[in-house]
Each structure stands twice: as structure tokens, then as C-alpha cells.
Amino acid sequence: MLNFKMIKTVYIYTYGCQMNVHDSEKMLGILSENGYRTAEKPEEADLIIFNTCAIREKAEQKFFSQLGRTKLLKKKRQDLKIAVAGCVAQDAKDNIIKKAPFVDFVLGPQNIHLISDLVSEKNTRTSFEENPDIAYKEYITKRDSSIKAWVSIMYGCNNFCSYCIVPYTRGREISRPSNRILSEIRQLHENGYKEVTLLGQNVNSYMSDIDFTGLLRKIDLININRVRFVTSHPRDLSDDLIRAISELKSVCEHLHLPIQSGSDRILDLMNRGYSYSEYIEKINMLRELMPGIAITSDIITGFPGETDEDYMLTVKALEEIEFDGIFAFKFSPRKGTKAFGMSKHLPDNVKTERLNHILKIQEDITYKKNKMIERTIQEILVEGHSETDKNMLVGRTRTNKIVTIPDLQENVGSFVKAKIQTARRHSLYGINIHSGRILN
Ligand code: 5AD
Ligand code: SF4
What we know:
This protein has 3 domains: 8-127, Methylthiotransferase, N-terminal domain (Rossmann fold, 3-Layer(aba) Sandwich), CATH 3.40.50; 138-371, pyruvate-formate lyase- activating enzyme (Alpha-Beta Horseshoe); 377-438, CATH 2.40.50.140. Helix content is 33%, strand content 22%. Helix 5 (115-119) links the parallel strand 5 and strand 6. The longest helix is centred in the last third of the chain and has 25 residues, at 348-372. Helix 9 (239-247) packs parallel to helix 11 (276-289) and helix 12 runs parallel beside helix 13. By secondary structure, the protein is an alpha/beta fold.
């Protein structure tokens, strides 16, 4: 039993990608083993952790302005401890302390296992060492959901896309042993989890005793209902993997496959390792084998030297491919990356104009795609109540589309068959046709 007085509380701000969300779950797991519980609000916490993202300047600014506000809390309460973790920590290292001397601990994403050691120290501590053991560590994880779980399968990235800071902050690519991944998923299945998402910067270059296709085949035997994975690199998406996705029952019919640009010249400058026609070939094969598959993507607008022609090729790509959804970003120069030093950086207004135009085009395509599944029957995994209407439930299709359905007292975590009635721009509305109770 923990002594009540020993119990401390922690509040985590998490920025950025799923990897960070899961790293926060790991830090919470480690800290709860060491007597911490989660605080509802930062004002109530003994320890505040910022799990930061450095991928774009905007994410970094968001963190720094929140850190500035937190300084006021620290002024009021000297015993409050502040830790900065994640990619900004790794990138800025000791400069964080120079810039914000009220910060107590700084640790990079490869060193999150040290969080409990760090916070037990009286003095300021930092940790940024490259940690090749990261793939062999087991983490006690405090998961946010009891239905869907993130599972790390690899760490770091070797791709060095010319715009990207991740290889510098998360280090070299390293895969976790397959037996560890499989036993974690078996355990999740036994604990009632319905969905796992395999995490890595480039999951399809996973390589341990087996490759990524082999791993998916073994995971499929566990019989967990849904398996997803992010992120895939088009260059490493083999025919064998496409076939495996189409054959394996548990693997969901959704693929996030970042294209970044439709121009071969820009793709080359980005060091992406594929051409537009090679990308299209993969899409064609995916759709041939799985006509209902949803494909989503990432786009960067205004990469250095992107001409109107290059940009129009990206627009053409969107119109030709018709993604189910995209995440689009303005190019953000990151110090230390190759693109930072390239010539012909574009003015912000051009990047913004292109971004807004692309988002507008995609909005109509997403709507059209959503319309196409009206009147179809979809399996929905119920995730919780709608935030705006407590009489409605929200869940996702296997293709990862959000669907709202009436609450007929289904349990969170159950599967409901629903007929899609209405497609909206960003969501779908369905009617339960079977959920243990059959409707007239
Ligand atoms: N500027 C803008 N977008 C970026 N991304 C990565 N680095 C940058 C950058 N410097 C985008 C890519 C990637 C996604 C996770 O973030 O599209 O796929
Ligand atoms: Fe960055 Fe490219 Fe690695 Fe993705 S694959 S993390 S975009 S370097």
C-alpha cells in the first residue's frame, strides 16, 4: 500500500503524433509505478510534463507559449516540478534550460524510461543520449483507452526525407523483437482490447527475425478484431505486403500512405525515393485487391523551389487518386535538415494560398467518398458517447471513418452493424441494424 502522503500527481501536455501519445502513456505507466497518479488539471499537479513535437514550427510555438503560462504556476508554487520531454527536448537540449531556467528536467524521446529517475532528483537533470536499447525495453504502460491500444513495433527513422527532423530527434531505426510485440498483443486481446495500432515512423521497413508482412501474418493468428498500422512509406510497400493486407482478416481496410507531392521533381528534392507513377501503381494494386479500401495521405505545400507547375501536379494527383482524407501542411523549415539550407524558399502567403486551395479541393473529394458509402452496412466499433449529443454514440468503421449512431444501450467497445444514412463532410450518420437488439 502506498502511503497517502507519498502520492504525487502528474499532468502531461502531449503534442504531435501518435508516437508521442503512446510515449505519454508509457511515462504515465512508469510514474504510476513510482507513486504518481494523474492530475485532472495542471494547477493540481506536483509534476507537469510537456511531451513536445518539433515537426513543424507551429507545434513548437504551441509548446513554448504553454510553457510560458506554466512559468506563472511555478512562481506561485516553488515545489512544482516541470519536465520537457519529446522531440523539442532532443532538438534544443540544454538550450531549453537556458531559455527557460524554471524547467527542472529535460529528456529526449529515446530516454523516456529515465523519467522516474529524473524526477526523484533534487537538481536539474537532462538526458539526450542515443539509446539503441530502446527496442529491447519493456514499458509498464498506462493506456488511455480500454478498447484501442497503441503498440510500438519500431523506433527511429533512417529515411532522412529532406524536410524532416524526426531522424535527428528519434535516432536510427530499430525494430522491436517480434516475440515481444506478439506477447503484448496477446495480452491486450486477453484484456478485452478490440483494436491495436502498430506504431513506427516507417512500419513497413520493420525487420527483426521476420519482416513486416511476416509480423502481420503472426498478429492475425491472435484474432484480435482490428489491426491498423502507421506510418507506411510508399517506397517500402511491397506487393507481398499489399497481398497480406488484403488476405488477413484482422487487418483493417485502411492505409495511410503519405505522398507529400505529386511532382517527381519535388519528390526527388524531398528524398522520398519514389515517383508519382510508382505511387499510383501501388494505389491501383491496393484498390484492385480491396475495392473498398480507404486511403489517406499527407501533403506538404510550398516546399523550397515548388513552382506553380509542381503545385498543380499535386492538385492533379489529388483529383486523380481521390483520397478518403488528407493531412496537409505548409512546409516548415527545420534547422539541421537538408531542406532548411535549400534555395528558393517560398513566401508564407504562397504556402498558405496553396494549402487552403488543396484543403478546399480535398473537402469535396472527402464528401464524395463519404457519399459513396451511404446505404451500405458497416461494422462500427463503439468508442464512446458523442460530445455534442449524449443520446448518440460515436465509433469507427474498419476504414477508419467516424460514424455517429443512436445510443440503444450498446456498450462502449462493442461492435454494431449500422446502415449509413447520411454522409457529412467530416463524419457519417448511421442507424443500428444489429447490436444485440434488432430494430424494426
Ligand atoms: N514541414 C511541413 N510538414 C512536415 N512534415 C514533416 N516534416 C515537415 C516539415 N518540415 C509532415 C509530412 C509528414 C507528416 C507527419 O508531417 O507530411 O508525413
Ligand atoms: Fe520524417 Fe520521412 Fe522518417 Fe517520416 S519517413 S519520419 S517524413 S524522415
